[in-house]
From TrEMBL:
GO cellular component term, pick one: cytoplasm
Record InterPro entries: G_HFLX_dom, GTP-bd, GTP-bd_M, GTPase_HflX, GTPase_HflX_N, GTPase_HflX_N_sf, P-loop_NTPase
Keywords: Cytoplasm, GTP-binding, Magnesium, Metal-binding, Nucleotide-binding
Keyword check for Cytoplasm: yes
One Pfam family this sequence matches: GTP-bdg_N
Record carries keyword Nucleotide-binding: yes
Organism: Desulfurivibrio alkaliphilus (strain DSM 19089 / UNIQEM U267 / AHT2)
Gene3D superfamilies (UniProt xref): 6.10.250.2860, GTPase HflX, N-terminal domain, P-loop containing nucleotide triphosphate hydrolases
Domain (Hflx-type G) ranges: 375-540
Single GO MF annotation: metal ion binding
Subunit structure: Monomer. Associates with the 50S ribosomal subunit.
Family designation: Belongs to the TRAFAC class OBG-HflX-like GTPase superfamily. HflX GTPase family.
Record-given protein name: GTPase HflX
Lineage: Bacteria, Pseudomonadati, Thermodesulfobacteriota, Desulfobulbia, Desulfobulbales
Amino acid sequence: MLERLGRRRLDPDHIMTPEMARPMSELSREIGRQLGLIIDRSGQVELLLVGDHRSIMIPALPQNRVAGARLRGLRCLHTHLGGEKLTQDDFMDLLFLRLDLMSALEVDNQGRPGKLHSAHLNPRAMGERDPGAAAGAAKAEVKPWILLPPQQVSRQPDNLRELISSLEAEFSRLRPVREVDKGRDRAILVSVSSVPRAVAEESMAELKELAASAGVMVLAEVIQRRDKINPRLILGRGKLGEIMLQALQLNANLLIFDQELNPSQVRSITDHTEMRVIDRTQLILDIFARRALSREGRLQIEMAQLKYLLPRLGTRDDALSRLTGGIGGRGPGETRLEIDRRRTRDRLNTLAAKLKAVSKERYRRRERRRKKEIPVLSLVGYTNAGKSTLLNALTGSDILAEDKLFATLDPTSRRLRFPEEMEVIITDTVGFIRHLPAELLQAFKATLEELGEADVLIHVVDISNPRFTEHIKVVEELLRELELDLLPRLTVFNKVDLLPDHEWVAAEAARYDAVVVSALAPETLPPLLERARQAILKNW
């Protein structure tokens, strides 16, 4: 009977026909389970679902139509044995799956069909919203779905195809051309943690800067504080539903999590939202992949990305096994997963060998500098502290310097002549950041070896940043981790031109024994040159 039910075809202009309603109701009551049909726009039954007494579970559906203003091209019709109307789960499925229609058929105690309850998405609730609106304001003033009046199966209007066409036309009218179609992602930032909200907001502000640095348009920010993190979805299904609604309202195509996600969490969230999902580490790796220009930088980034990817090659598929012959060799051979892992490890070994060669070449260059007895100054600091701008100002160079996180990745060295005819080498290195991915730190050790040969480290701090004290701590912790914390260090407060309170700046400079400069104002640089000269003479 189930097979025959699944082979039936509905009139594409009707939600349900009496010829389908009667056998579906009788069979559902007889087995004591909800029955569901996934139906395409031609009236063909694509899937027959058998649930339990209270619900059905809709599996993964084809995504070939889900883009822009289009609905999925499928609708769900299922039975309700308790005489209830559409439930919250029904509305969530309608929203998450972007179905054409969600319908529930009442079934009485004798197995007879009752009223038919239907709902579709509300285009006006999904229309383009102001990206600058607060996260809470993104919730619709109107419900994201519209309930149709309950109907008797035998008295339905014959306008279903016309209704769905008008819905898609309204979606198209309310939704302009998406930025993602122009090559720019539109993202919602999500943070779920147990830390105090102020700390989470600081980290979120930095994640927003990272997203902007990657060319991503940030539409909304969601911060949820939980004492216990959901191991599967990070956050609760209800909150995920709110985020999905926001994504539809704002036309977002990407979720960026501030916390590092494991592979199963990425899959679970992707399955629920059908959106691309990345975490903070992946975002930083993407920025590095875009910005690295030198051959060495590209090698380091590829190595970091492969190290990040390797534990995420976790989906085993024995259907792709290669069978081998011979005694002891029968059965599944090397699976696709194992081949991918082996190739990844082989590539990592190749990259490690190449980077070792790069490290030797750097060592030879450093030895040549040592023979010439030229002191070395190395600029270190939090990303976007103004290191490259300062290097340009001191040496008259034109290294790329932008108001972005990680604008400069490749190390750069320039000669600098002090007024007293002393010549030094000044080196700019990659900026630091909190929660710097371990893969990146390991991959960039060849670059950071330059710091170990420095006679003096110049720690550049963006004094205009409200979180500059936390940035100083992050840099100090990373230097300690790299065993560079014992090198002589000179602290420089940069971007003083952005602060009107000079007395406060002077007090902070005295507290940290720092030199106050503005890389954009050459007249502020002589005190820095004098302090650097003194530090070199003391330690050279």
